[in-house]
C-alpha cells in the first residue's frame, strides 16, 4: 500500500508474523528504470516479500521483474487494481482490466525472464464493464499467459468520479463473485481481498478461497498479525509480545538514523500497536507529537511504551 507498506512497516510486521507474505508498495517501472531512488531496497528479514509493480510496457515490466528476482524478491505482482488518475495516465492499474491482452503479454514477458511467481492483483470490474463474463475473460486470458495466482479485490473500481479512497469504500464488496471465480477456475490460486478485518473472517473466506490479503486492518491494527502464524498457518510458535517487538525496533531505528533517516519514518507505522488496550492513546500521542522532532532518539519508543507499560493487560486468546 502506497506510503504505508514501506520497508520500515514490513520489518515491523515481520516481527509480528513469520509466515504472512508481505507486499511492497506499488513501484512503477518508470521509477525503477529511470528514478534516482533505491526503489528495490528492502531488509533481508522481510522474506517472504513480493514486489508489486505498476506498469504496462511488457519489456519494461520484464526488465523490472528480472531486477526484482536478482535482488531476491520472492514474487512479482502486477497491479491491475489501482484506480488513481495519475496511474490511468500512465496506462496502468485498474484501467488495464480493459486490456487483458496487454496484461497477458506483460505476464508472458515477465515469466520469460524470471523463475519466481508472477502474480496479478485485480478488481472484479471497472466502470460499466462489471459483468461476471468480463471478469472471467480477463482471468482466462491472463491465466493462459501463465499467471497462476491472482488476488481479487472483490469490488469494482470507478475510473472517473471517485477518489482512490472512495474506490476502496463505495463500490460494494462482492465476495460471492470471487468465490464463484474460484469454483470456475479451481486450478488457479485465488486470494481474496477487501474489507477483511478479523482472522475469523479470514478463516471463513479460506473455506472458499486459497488465500486472503488483508490491507488496511493489518496496517491500522498491526497486532492482528501476531495471531496469523498460529491461527492461519497452524504454527506452534509463541505469540509475539508487544513489548519485545518495541524493544527489537529500537536497534532498527538506530540503524535507520545512522543512515541519515528520522525516527518518525519508522515509528509512524507503529502507532496502532497497542490499539484496544488502555494506554494506546498515550503511546500514539507520544510518538505522533515527538518522533518527528530533530532531537528525537530511538529511546522515544521505550519512553512511549513506559507510559502504557503498567496498563498492559495480560494476553488472552
Ligand atoms: C493508503 C493505501 C495505499 C494503497 N496502495 C496500494 C498499492 O500500492 N497497490 C495495491 O495493489 N493496492 C493498494 N491499496 C489497496 C489495498 O491493497 C487493498 O486492495 C484495499 O485497501 C482493500 O483491502 P482492505 O480492505 O483489506 O484494505 C492501497 C490502500 C490504501 C489504504
Task: Record the SSE blueprint.
Layout: H1 7-16, E1 22-28, H2 29-34, E2 49-54, H3 58-71, E3 75-80, H4 85-89, H5 100-113, E4 118-122, H6 132-144, E5 149-153, H7 175-184, E6 189-193, H8 199-205, E7 211-213, H9 216-220, H10 228-231, H11 242-258, H12 263-267, H13 280-290, H14 300-309
Parallel strand pairs: 1-2, 2-3, 3-4, 4-5, 5-6, 6-7
Domain DUS-like FMN-binding: 1-295
Organism: Ferrimonas sediminicola
Site (Interacts with tRNA): 79, 165, 168, 281, 284
Low confidence ranges: none
Count of β-strands: 7
The CATH homologous superfamily of the largest domain is termed Aldolase class I
- Proportion of helical residues: 40-55%
The distinct ligands, each listed once, are:
flavin mononucleotide
Reading off the top of the CATH hierarchy, the class of the largest domain is best stated as: Alpha Beta
Q: What is the tally of helical segments?
A: 14
Number of domains: 2
Mean pLDDT value: 95
**CATH architectural category of the largest domain:** Alpha-Beta Barrel
Strand order of the largest sheet: 1-2-3-4-5-6-7
